[in-house]
Design goal:
By secondary structure, the protein is an alpha/beta fold. Helices cover 32% and strands 25% of the residues. The protein has a five-stranded mixed beta barrel with strand order 5-9-8-6-10. α1 packs across α3.
């Protein structure tokens, strides 16, 4: 049996789209009238969302895009979105709305677990492709092992980090919907393939962006370690929050 169950479903028109959803909200008077930013930073940790609000000041979008914030400093063309949850399905619902709103570029900044022994807590990884071990991406693209980040945007992010002397590694991630079923056998297998981190959103982000013809890339900060085949969590290590804030600041002030 192939996945999804209906073969080649991505070749057919969808019965319900994010634009349909926005149009419905227009009939109820809840449609957003806020102009969309060209670029959006996607955040998952509430603390990071609050950091942006307190440091830069934001204007909230109205209506059905109310979770989006527009930075009100020197750069008024960038948005920040968070608070919608974690994982590929949660990201998909709001990502599709942002695309239908008119956003063209997305930079995801979140945490990930290290698979590579070469990584340490707080290390930055720019993910250029991700193993499609979740469900969402298979509804958008033909079967393939990886979903790929947008190359121009990924290169631009890497150059930005280099110019600001912020060390990072580039490489693949493993996206899964089942964080409590990241098995030892899988970690060993993906280590041999050179996969750097495991997370829950990238494959969906990359697949949807390709399908919808927008740009997307991902920055992850190592928050826990699986590389020694024993889980070592460090989510509250100051290095993790510091590195994520550094990345956020660079993107906002670009």
């Amino acid at each position: 049996m192939t996945f999804p169950n209906y073969k080649d479903k991505y070749k057919s028109a969808s019965l319900v789209t994010a634009q349909n959803f926005a149009d419905y909200y227009r009939t109820t008077g809840q449609h957003s009238t806020t102009q969309p930013p060209a670029k959006v930073i996607i955040l998952y940790q509430t603390s990071n969302n609050n950091y942006v609000k307190s440091k830069y000041g934001v204007n909230n979008a109205d209506g059905h895009m109310h979770m989006a914030n527009i930075v009100t400093g020197a750069n008024k063309k960038i948005g920040v979105v968070g608070g919608f949850g974690i994982g590929a399905p949660a990201l998909t619902l709001y990502l599709e709305l942002m695309i239908s709103w008119g956003v063209k570029e997305f930079i995801s900044i979140g945490t990930a677990g290290s698979i590579s022994p070469a990584l340490s807590i707080g290390d930055i990884v720019v993910c250029n492709k991700s193993i499609r071990d979740e469900g969402v991406s298979h509804h958008y693209l033909p079967p393939e092992k990886y979903a790929y980040a947008s190359e121009p945007l990924t290169l631009a992010v890497e150059e930005l980090l280099k110019r600001n002397n912020l060390p990072f590694k580039s490489g693949p991630s493993w996206t899964t919907d089942a964080p409590y079923m990241e098995t030892i056998a899988e970690v060993e297998y993906y280590q041999q393939e050179g996969v750097l981190v495991v997370e829950m959103e990238n494959a969906a982000l990359f697949a949807i962006s390709k399908y919808r013809n927008v740009q997307a890339t991902s920055i992850t900060v190592v928050s826990d370690d699986l590389s020694k085949l024993k889980w070592s969590p460090h989510f509250h290590d100051p290095k993790v929050s510091t590195q994520m804030k550094r990345c956020i600041d660079l993107i906002v002030n670009e």
